[in-house]
Amino acid sequence: MTTPAPHELRLTAEQMRALGHQVVDLVVDHLSGQRDRPVHRRVAAGEVDHLLDEAIPEHPADPGGLVDFLAAEVLPRSLHLGHPGCLAFIPSANNFLGVLGDFIASGFNVSPGAWFVGAGPAAIEQVTARWLAELLGMPAGSGGVFTPGGTVANLAAVAAARHDRLGDDPAAAVLYCSDQTHPAVLRACHVLGLRDALRLLPGTGHRLDPDLVRREVEADRRAGRRPFLVLANAGTTGTGSIDPLPELADLCREHDLWLHVDGAHGAAAAMTSRGRAALTGLAEADSIVVDPHKWLFQPYEIGCLLVRDPTTLYRTFALERFRAHAGYLDLTRPSPDEVNLSDHGVQLTTSARALKLWLSFKGFGVTAFRAAIDRGLDLTEHAAGLVGRSAELELLAGPSLGILCFRYRPPSAPDTADLDAVQHRITEAVNASGRFMIATTTVHDQRALRLCTTNPRTTPADLDALFTDIMRAGQALE
Question: Which residues carry this modification: N6-(pyridoxal phosphate)lysine (predicted)?
Fold first, then answer.
């Protein structure tokens, strides 16, 4: 084979195979050795100056050396979200089949947006969305579209609800959600020009109150406004709280409102019997967002919007509604028995995101995913038991959908003690060890320690060791 010319941006087959083996070894070493490394270390701004100050690389460098550079200088300077000790945020414990799915999607560089361009990947995207809808209990005929994550999925859901209920005239629109709603959802409303239309209602026990929503809807209708949407939560990221979905579904049917459920974190739990019971009413929603890069253990980025009636997405986003002068796209317009997924969401060109989830479901079997989700629920119950058996720990919220919130409060502490500062200092001490990463949140105006136990590689022994560290840190402060 002749040596590729520089303008071809091509390597020889031998070079590509060698680099591929190098990268696979790097990824496998990372995935199989996370427990042996610190979950995180603080990176000072000055440590990355050599990255920020690099000059434009006009001339080629050895690709293998560049991979080594990334392994030594870039990748270690990040939080290892799949580490069994990473209990902060919502850990993303990805799996190797998902990694391979991303690699294949990038290597073939196909897009499922237009049937003419990527019919095979489009079929995989449609069947995988149907699987998800069925696994969450949605009725036959439900489907959806994959997105970069929950933010775009929620934006698309709100846009579809607005068009379905209000048409092309959003004047006097009103939508309702609780003060526990994720900032990404609120930002999506802002992007859609609905910030002033938002009724952000105080939660009762971190849950949206259907009676309060009803009163607000009726008052807005009397005032000549146009309520169209209720945004509910299936597992808030702060406390794992679940809004009363059956009651909200009844309310929405009574008042002809669209019910959207942000289940980016928690909806996947409905794949198990315990989770389905906790999420009663989820399947009555008009739309649901789930993030497979959270509790379905996929690499970033992959979100999914599921809808009871996929034609609502087409009516909202069909390219023909927005066409100006783009005749060159006529070649990609589908026949009646074909589906252009770009007509069902915000993005026109999109990567074949569903390949990794399809490969993971097929390769491991969905039964394994159910077991992994149940494992996360078991771990939260175990952590709650540790809190309950300690006189110095106080449960504030949960366990709910893999999330637990509690605080360290020694019996001798006076009521005037600055316990919020205590939780912060305990978190700093625990995280400084490098064995664990935990976070704090606010529950009932109190600072709390927060754990998310959805990583299937975390063990009960890990939690026992974590609570030993928490108790030692708290006692040291006394």
Answer: 294
